[in-house]
Amino acid sequence: MDSTADNSTVDMTTTSTSPGKIKNVKLVLLGESAVGKSSIVLRFVSRQYIENREPTIGAAFLTQKCLVKDRTIKFEIWDTAGQERFHSLAPMYYRNAQAAIVVYDITKSSTLDKAKSWVKELQRQANTDIVIALVGNKLDLVENENGEPINDEEHERQVSKEDAHAYADEAGLLFFETSAKSAQNVDSVFNSIAEKIPLDTTYSPNSRNAVSARGNLNNGVNLMQPATQGNSSSCAC
């Protein structure tokens, strides 16, 4: 993402069809650099995909609402940087998070190893009832729209769906393979997370921890840049 600081947030949702009270859900994205975390979020929030995105610096904050069954979920999304130098800042973003998406690149097995380490950290230090989704991204590089394998020596699948799914089941995670480029399964990730969020959990966007995170961003410890606004459409959850 662009490294220009910006204190605004993005909400691409049309709210006229949203009944009842809005439930705020803090969600954090974790994973190695260049696995597509920001592309997944941008696809979900603004229905866009941008080739050759700049790496996220620190973290970006975005919001999106979606209607799930009889309630409206407002995701407050912290898209964190994947570079190792920002690892120590991660607890500031996943503290009090009700959900996390841990992303890896299905064409790079080393990124799954990193994803597993993030899962262990979340299970050890984050909320005990946090909903975690393991997401293998860049499906478009190895499969066509019909699910048939693409013979591409440059982008061969290195992580089998069966092995990753087995790990996710063992660790108690949601599991998806996605393509931020084609939008395949992106909405399904957020929809499934929304359905699993307990009704009685609460999160205040004005809590001390949330304000602390944003305060650090504003003071230059990190930089955040909201997504470029596209079509003003609601979540397809």
UniProtKB/TrEMBL annotation:
UniProt keyword annotation of Heme present: no
Listed SUPFAM superfamilies: P-loop containing nucleoside triphosphate hydrolases (SSF52540)
One protein family per Pfam: Ras
Keyword Hydrolase on entry: no
One Gene Ontology MF term: GTP binding
Keyword terms, alphabetized: Nucleotide-binding
PANTHER family in the cross-refs: PTHR47978
NCBIfam families tied to this protein: small_GTP
UniProt protein name: GTP-binding protein of the rab/ypt
